[in-house]
Amino acid sequence: MKCSKLYALLLSVANANERCGTVDFGEYGQFPPRSLSSYPGSGNTWVRYLIEEFTGYYTGSIYDDKKLYQGGFKGETENWKEGRVIAVKSHSYREDRGLGDAILLIRNPFDAILAEFNRQRGLKSGDHHTGVATNDDFQSPDWTDMDMDKRAWRWYKLYAGNLLSGRNTLPILYEHMKQNPVPEMQKISNFLNQTNIDYDEKIDCLFGESSKKFKRSSDRGYDPYNFIESSKLKIVNERIRQLSDLLNKIHKLELPEDYYRDL
Q: Is-contact 6 214, C-beta < 8 A?
């Protein structure tokens, strides 16, 4: 399933009558300002949905996406500083923002950059959040001349900023979540101090036959990165290596070898 179709589907399954259980706001001041931090295109919306289903509490955002709110993410427009949402979506790191401990949702930056380009194509065409880039798009200067250095730096800075902040962080790899979401959700729930969850009750609804609808795939018969000079992709490999070294130093975790492109 293409990323755009997954996003549209998430908006439909997030509606209250489609949920596996009740989702509510917390009391004022109940939750500290923990973030769900990710580079755009890394599956933040999907993981927010899972957090809400597992914990029974809405997530929030530093943004104000009306489409997400209308799709059932009722915490999207909530003032996250009031402590009523269990985690707060963020795509950037700023020391003065006021967010604390962070779940770091990490995806292969080559895949995340591609997913975000698809989304941006949709915005440009007026198909908000549901557009998909075409072959012509990938041969246009918007893609071939893309500033990969800038994007790789933003990807690295988001995670490194959180890791070096001194706050508690939980790195979660998107690829691990996609392959086996239950243990990853257990880690997230524990990090959010939600330890009394009946996992058996949630698993059948979230990861039974319906789990197939969350799998991303592509029927594209070519690699869009073949249209970008390999010299521009080397910096992405270097940022992957830098973040992997930092994760290893702090969490004894290294990024998978298949994150790197063979250039």
A: yes
CA separation, residue 139 to residues 4, 222, 227 (Å): 20, 12, 6
Number of neighbouring beta carbons within 10 Å of residue 56: 18
Contact 149, 229 (CB under 8 A): no
Max mean pLDDT among 14-28, 115-129, 234-248 falls in 234-248
Q: Which two tokens stand for residue 20?
A: 């596996």
Residue 204's pLDDT is what? Answer: 74
CA-CA distance, 153 to 167, in Å (whole number)? 21
Which of 161, 79, 114 lies closest to 3, judged by CA? 114
- Say how far apart CA 80 and CA 99 lie, in whole Å: 10
- Confidence at residue 12, expressed as pLDDT on a 0 to 100 scale: 43
Distance CA 126, CA 50 (A): 28
**189-208 tens-digit pLDDT:** 999 999 888 877 777 777 65
- CA-CA distance, 210 to 230, in Å (whole number)? 39
Q: Domains of the chain by range and CATH?
A: 3-259 (3.40.50)
Q: Are 230 and 206 contacting, i.e. CB atoms less than 8 angstroms apart? A: no
In three state form, how does the secondary structure of 125-187 look?
HCCCCCCCCCHHHHCCHHHHCCCHHHHHHHHHHHHHHHHCCCCCEEEEEHHHHHHCHHHHHHH
Q: Which of 165, 153, 195 is nearest to 99 (CA)?
A: 165
pLDDT digits (tens, 9 = 90+) for 140-165: 999 999 999 999 999 999 999 999 99
Give the whole-angstrom CA distance, residue 132 versus residue 3: 8
